[in-house]
UniProtKB/TrEMBL annotation:
Lineage: superkingdom: Bacteria
GO cellular component: cytosol
Organism: Liquorilactobacillus nagelii
UniProt xrefs under Pfam families: Glyco_hydro_1 (PF00232)
Keyword Disulfide bond: no
Keyword terms: Glycosidase, Hydrolase
Protein name from the UniProt record: Beta-glucosidase
Family recorded in the similarity comment: Belongs to the glycosyl hydrolase 1 family.
One Gene Ontology term of the molecular function aspect: beta-glucosidase activity
Active-site positions on this chain: 380
Gene Ontology process terms (BP): carbohydrate catabolic process
Classification via InterPro entries: GH (IPR017853), GH_1_N_CS (IPR033132), Glyco_hydro_1 (IPR001360), Glyco_hydro_1_AS (IPR018120)
SUPFAM superfamilies linked to this entry: (Trans)glycosidases
Amino acid sequence: MEFRKNFLWGGAVAANQIEGGWNLGSKGLSVADVAQYRPQLDVTDYQRQVGVTTADIQVAIKAQSAKDYPKRRGIDSYHRYQEDIALFAEMGFKTLRFSIAWTRLFPNGDELEPNPAGIKYYQNVIKELKKYQIEPLVTLSHYEMPLHLAVERNGWADRRTIADFVRFAKVCFENFSDVKYWLTFNEIDSVTRHPFTSAGIIPDRTANLIQAEYQALHHQFVASAKVTKLCHQLIPESQVGCMLTKVTTYPATAKPEDVLAAFNKNTLNYFCADVQVKGEYPQLIQQFFKNNQIELTVLPEDLAIIRENTVDFISFSYYMSMLAAADESGMEMTSGNTVLGGKNPYLETTEWGWTVDPVGLRISLLELYDHYQKPLFVVENGLGTHDQLTQDGKVHDDYRIKYFKSHLSEMAKAVAAGVDLLGYTSWGPIDLISASTSQMSKRYGFIYVDQDDNGNGTLNRYRKDSFYWYQKVIATNGQSLAE
């Protein structure tokens, strides 16, 4: 079976990882603007990389430069978006997934009126995409909530944040009404892995962290349902999706206890999509709350709002798979995308410890479609690795081509098996600042950006060998994968 004729091939980025301009256009500080590059830490130590304390935040607020805070500078797409979009158009992109920085529209997050400069910036970006017939796929919240809301009220742990987010979303829908595809929260399940990055929760100011994390998730579910309803009202032809981190977990052995351990991890992985797609908390999750003494504050109208405003499609990131066992002592562990799990001896791993499992993408697509019977969208998938720019401005990245060919071929097999797939956006089609480690040297792109981890470089853009490979994949609607 071929990919649908209007299959949305493209790439995905986040405002906080590409834009820069952290102090321009009346933008406020976001949680990403205090993410510090920590070269002294092991690059696979994600929990310490994303960890933040009150003291860290206070130091960052006083810092008036981007020196130790790479997400403040990004790759300067704030000034270079026209150049970057032209390169995406040259590759043949049908869509570009990007996020709107909440703090460009509402610097503190709780203002009643938006910042006109922020609205104008994103109108210009969308206009540029439309010039090349590139469909915008917009994420409303992608790890960049206002720092003010985190410091003043512990972010999404406070119910008042719902109203502020709905106000922000309403401004987006009113001013960017020619956008058809929207996502609410990026990797919404990640609140329990990095609560500050995802939900503005400051751990050292939180008495019961697990309670705060799941309360924040509930508030995000309510907010997602409210903005889904609002988007359908203001943009009648729109489609709104949820977005989760798909971490497919296999049992380490055929022992029933290990199979059960994998089942439990996969059940938790599905939880957030279950709520947003089916409109209710699964019974097993409700029991999980009871078993762990998690008591959510739920208003009477919350469950009705969630039930009546489910999403139109499911989008997800897929980078790797993991192993689970009932007894993990002595088991070799590896990490990836801030997740720690058993290392699969049958799979290769990247320099950052991420397992490379193309077949896992097919499994994930089949499982998700069987589970939900809703259209799917792969909105993140890619290989972060070191690249070498030659003296003549080339990057020979056969390893990246190999990675994408293996994953896209498995994706095609899932489509042939009957999966309804809307599109595919590779993560970081242009090199950007890494979400977890704030590195520049962990490169994902088809386009090389001349900048190092310390911000040195010309910022010039160079087409890698993979640029031309992906260009052909798009031009043939995936048929070249069979070559």
